[in-house]
């Protein structure tokens, strides 16, 4: 029984592959201009704003499904900002000792 199923499955896969290859060859011939009796290939694109809306919707779904990614990034930014605020806490003082640190901060 298993052998019969395997034989059927292999034949079905081969037939499917050959059909896909035949379609691929037909499209390649049409692109090259060798065949003209096929209907023209139309590339339909949405305008810019609907594309942006689709991408924003997809991104919103990703954020909803995996919020840890953005929470981790937010925590990393919080720690980095805290670190630099502690490092440059004395940068407001107007003395010559802090001049080099201010120059480094603005570079």
Structural commentary:
With about 110 residues, the chain is mainly alpha-helical. It has two domains: about 1-40, no CATH class; about 45-105, no CATH class. It has four helices and no strands. The longest helix has about 30 residues, at about 1-30. The radius of gyration is 31 Å and the shape is elongated. The termini are far apart.
Provide a quick synopsis of the model:
With 107 residues, the protein is mainly α.
Briefly note the structural class of the backbone: mainly alpha
Instruction: Quote the beta fraction.
Output: under 5%
Helix content: over 70%
Number of strands: 0
| Low-confidence runs | none
Overall number of structural domains: 2
Q: Helix count?
A: 4
Radius of gyration: 31 Å
Q: Can you tell me the overall shape?
A: elongated
Q: Topology as H/E string?
A: HHHH
How is the biggest beta sheet arranged?
Answer: none
Mean pLDDT: 77
Q: Distance between termini?
A: 75 Å
């Amino acid at each position: 029984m298993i052998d019969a199923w395997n034989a059927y499955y292999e034949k079905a896969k081969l037939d499917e592959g050959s059909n896909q290859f035949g379609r691929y060859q037909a499209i390649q011939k049409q692109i090259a201009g060798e065949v003209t009796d096929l209907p023209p290939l139309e590339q339909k694109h949405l305008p810019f704003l609907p594309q942006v809306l689709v991408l924003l919707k997809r991104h919103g779904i990703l954020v909803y499904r995996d919020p840890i990614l953005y929470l981790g990034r937010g925590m990393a930014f919080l720690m980095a900002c805290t670190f630099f605020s502690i490092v440059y806490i004395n940068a407001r003082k107007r003395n010559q000792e802090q001049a080099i640190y201010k120059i480094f901060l603005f570079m």
